[in-house]
Structure formats: C-alpha cells, structure tokens
Specification:
This protein is an alpha+beta fold. The chain has 15 helices and 17 strands. The longest helix is centred in the middle third of the chain and has 22 residues, at 226-247. It binds zinc ion (ZN).
Length: 497
C-alpha cells in the first residue's frame, strides 16, 4: 500500500501578559491555589463587562509578524457557545471570521534528511483560555474539581495548513515555533505547565490506480510534549493504514473523529464526536467593540522584533563560518545564549573561537553548575577580552584556559570579574606573550643542550631542516599548548643565525 500522511497542527500558546485577556485578574500559573485568580468577568457573572487587554493584542500581532502572517487592520470578537464545567459562562470569546492575522509560514529543517520545508499557516487568532477540570485518577471514584485560575488567560491559536508529511516534521515545526516565540518574548511556551499545547489533524492520501484517495480525518487533542506529538502521529498513521486495509473508508464516509493520546500506553483513543462550527452558534460579542490598528501602530510593534533564530543560524554559517551544527547548537539554546555569543564574537572578532569556547568550556560550567547563561558570572565582555588576546596571539589557548579558570575562582569568591581582572591574571601568572616567549626560549635551550639531541642539532645547523621535527616534539611535550609553528621558527633561528 502506497500512501502519504497529511498532517496539520493547531497550536495554542498562552501569552506573557500581566493580566488576563478581558479582566484585571493576574495571569499566573498557580495550580496550588485553585480559584483565587477569578472575578465576575472571567467567571461570567451576569452584568459583568469585558475590556480587552491591549498588551495581549500587541503580543499577538508581534507573533504574527514573526510567523510571516498578514495582519488585519480591523478585527472583532465572537462568542463560541458551548457548555463545559471549566467554562462557567457557557461561551468562549474567540475570533471567528475576521481573525487579526492570516496566511503565513514557518520554515523548518529536518535533522534526519537536512531537507528544508515551508509549513504554511492559515491564520492566528486570539481567544480566552478555559479553566481546568481535575478528575480523581485513583480509580476509586472520588470527586472531579474545577480550577478557574486559567479562565480568561490570553490564548493565541496558530493553525497550520495540512502541509506536514511526517511525525518528525511536526515535532521540528513545534520546536522551531517554541524557539521563535521565546526569542520574541511573547510566551514561555512551557509545555509541562500547559502554556503551549497542540492538536494534530491526521489522515492519509492513499495512492491507488493513479488516484489519491483521502481517508477520514482524525484530530488528536491536547498533546503536551514534543515526544507526545511525534509518538501520537506515528501511532495514528499506523492505525489509519490498518483501518484503510480493513474498511476502506474515505473522507466524508464518517464524521471527523476526535481522539485523545494516552502517553503511558502509547496509544490514541476515541473521544466525543467533533462538533461542526455550526454547533457553536458563533456570533459577534455584543459587549466588545471591534478593534482597529493603524499601520503606524503595527510598525511600532515591528520595531520591537529581534533577529529570528532561522536568520541567526544562516548568518552564523554564512558570515562567521560556523558549521550548521554549531550554529544550531548556539541558536537553539535561546536568545540570551545567542546574544551572549554575539557579544563575545564582536569583542574578540572571531566567531569560530567564540563558538568553540561557548559550546565547550562555558557549556561545561553551565552544566556542572546547573545554571543558565544569564546567571553565568563571566560576562560576554570579559570572556570576549580573554578570547581577543588568544586571537591576537598575546596568549596561548592553554593560557586562556588558565585565565578562564582563575576568573571562575575569583567570581566564586565573590569578586566581580572584569576585563582588568583578565590583564591582572595574565600578569600575575606570567602568561603573556613575553613571559611565554621566555619560557619557550628556556625550553628550547634545554632541548638543544641535551646530549642525546647532539646529532639532530648538528643536522639542523648543517641545513637539514627536517631534522628539527623531534626537537619541536620535545619542546611541545614540555610546554603543552605552545604554538608548534613559532617553536619551529625559534629553534631554526637559534641554530642557524
Ligand atoms: Zn477575572
């Protein structure tokens, strides 16, 4: 059987506003104190009136720009009617026919093949989140509870075209989306806390007798980890292949099915039937005025954007000569890490040197200390000044490591280290070029004076330059980290001048 998986994603992202979308309640993840972040507006008491949070719209518009979406100057709010215990007012304020943004794309590169694809986006719209139902999972019955802290949290829904063709592509799309939204600081996209969640629409195009036959679409709801998204889609593709072989049902033969994902058993399972948009009885919210945004306002938002992860990777490879792998390692660590790298590079003038230090020496310290780059005691300017001395040849890489270790030691002792600390350490420890040259000179003299080397020394004196090799080797063993080229030159100079 030949087939192509057809996958589209709907991603929900909570925005990092101080307050909720239509009231002043705090927008905080607070599962330990249920129902404390509520008011008449977000729980929908009669007579309460919503007021739109301007910052939520601004963060949404900023996101849309990063996702290459077109922005509408005019948008409005609609009521989506349904009853569920976590939605006490029995409707959700959302956007139906006039979302604030439409037609965008995200570029993703698959690690397995290196292939780059564009996943198109249909739209992004803003809506309020519902509360949370909590069921007793002991299996002994018990109570179901409702926590309305989350009710009314600003939620951005990003809907892709069914452009995704495999589970890996879905995962990479989500990872890239999360990285991008974190770079532009609109959401923490914390999947454990539910601030990024995903539904996947999956079906197959079966290739038979030159025909492409679409099978029924299944929506897998509430995927809350990257692994879950990938595993659920893989499972669903296999399940649908079997279903086709058994019942040969095509799209339209049965209603769209909604399934859940059981991460423990690694299976999707059938849930309630999916309502059509008609069942929600959308209508414009009479309590909220439509929103107009001027081009000037949009331009002011655009000015707050940073360089996006994909553009940074390209520039690290093309402008700094980094490998694609190193560029990704740095960019994927997040914006603060990439900003740190940029500053080190601009101070030392050598992106490759900066990348080596960041991905090895600095990363090892961060791992050992279990800290983020923002908490690292050696600032980018200070590390940059150490690397600048290496790049200029003032100190060796080995001496650079000694300076780095001493900087860490001093800052652990409570000193704030600076570029001046770097100079002081180099002077104290005698690591500078002059001291280095002195040391190398002494080591070379010792090797020349060693009787065992008399023959080689004579040969070099007599013009046989290839005899210098073993002498360089001995000096290098003595002075780990010295530059072999300059040692070679110094030995030749000493013996032939
Ligand atoms: Zn409220």
């Amino acid at each position: 059987m030949e087939f192509t998986p057809i996958i589209g994603l709907e991603v929900h992202v909570q925005l990092l506003t101080k307050s909720k979308l239509f009231c002043g309640c705090p927008n905080l993840f607070n599962p330990d104190n249920p129902n404390v972040q509520t008011c008449p507006v977000c729980i929908g008491l009669p007579g309460s009136l919503p007021v739109m949070n301007q910052e939520a719209l601004r963060l949404s518009q900023k996101t849309a720009m990063a996702l290459n979406l077109n922005l509408a100057n005019f948008t409005k709010w609609d009521r989506k009617q349904y009853y569920y215990p976590d939605l006490p007012k029995a409707y959700q304020i959302s956007q139906f026919d006039l979302p604030f943004s439409y037609d965008g794309w995200v570029e993703v590169t698959l690690p397995s093949s290196g292939e780059t694809t564009k996943v198109r986006l249909i739209r992004a719209h803003l809506e309020e989140d519902a509360g949370k139902n909590m069921h007793d999972e002991s299996g002994r019955g018990g109570d179901s509870k409702v926590d309305l802290n989350r009710t009314g949290t600003p939620l951005l829904e990003i809907v892709s075209e069914p452009d995704i063709r495999c589970a890996e592509e879905a995962r990479v799309f989500l990872e890239e989306l999360r990285l991008l939204l974190r770079y532009i600081e609109v959401s923490d996209c914390n999947m454990q806390e539910g601030s990024m969640r995903c539904d996947a629409n999956v079906n197959l195009h079966v290739h038979e007798d030159g025909e492409k036959i679409p099978t029924p679409i299944v929506e897998v709801k509430n995927l809350n980890s990257f692994r879950g998204v990938e595993a659920a889609i893989e499972y669903e593709i296999k399940r649908q292949v079997k279903a086709w072989e058994t019942d040969r049902k095509r799209i339209g033969d049965v209603p769209k099915e909604t399934r859940g994902w059981d991460a423990d058993r690694g299976q999707t399972f059938a849930q309630r039937g999916k309502e059509d948009a008609a069942d929600y009885r959308y209508f414009p919210d009479p309590d909220l005025v439509p929103v107009t945004t001027t081009d000037e306002q949009l331009e002011a938002i655009r000015a707050t954007l940073c360089v996006f992860p994909a553009d940074r990777r390209k520039s690290y490879v093309n402008d700094l000569g980094l490998s694609e792998y190193d560029a990704s390692v740095i960019v994927d660590q997040g914006r603060e890490y990439a900003d740190y790298f940029d500053e080190v590079t601009s101070v030392c003038g050598d992106g490759k040197q900066a990348a080596n230090w960041l991905t090895q020496d600095v990363q090892r310290e961060l791992n050992d200390r279990k800290i983020e780059i923002a908490e690292f005691s050696i600032s980018a300017a200070v590390l940059g000044s150490v690397l600048q001395k290496i790049v200029k040849g003032d100190i060796t890489i080995k001496s650079g490591r000694e300076v780095f270790a001493e900087l860490l030691k001093q800052s652990d002792d409570g000193t704030t280290v600076s570029a001046e600390s770097v100079d002081a350490i180099i002077a104290d420890k005698g690591l500078g070029k002059e001291q280095d040259t002195g040391k190398i000179d002494a080591a070379i003299q010792a090797v020349i004076d060693n009787e065992r080397n008399a023959k080689a020394v004579e040969d070099v004196r007599g013009g046989k330059q290839q005899a210098v090799g073993p002498l360089i080797g001995q000096v290098m063993r003595e002075l780990k980290g010295a530059d072999a080229g300059s040692v070679r030159q110094m030995i030749i100079d000493k013996l032939t001048s």
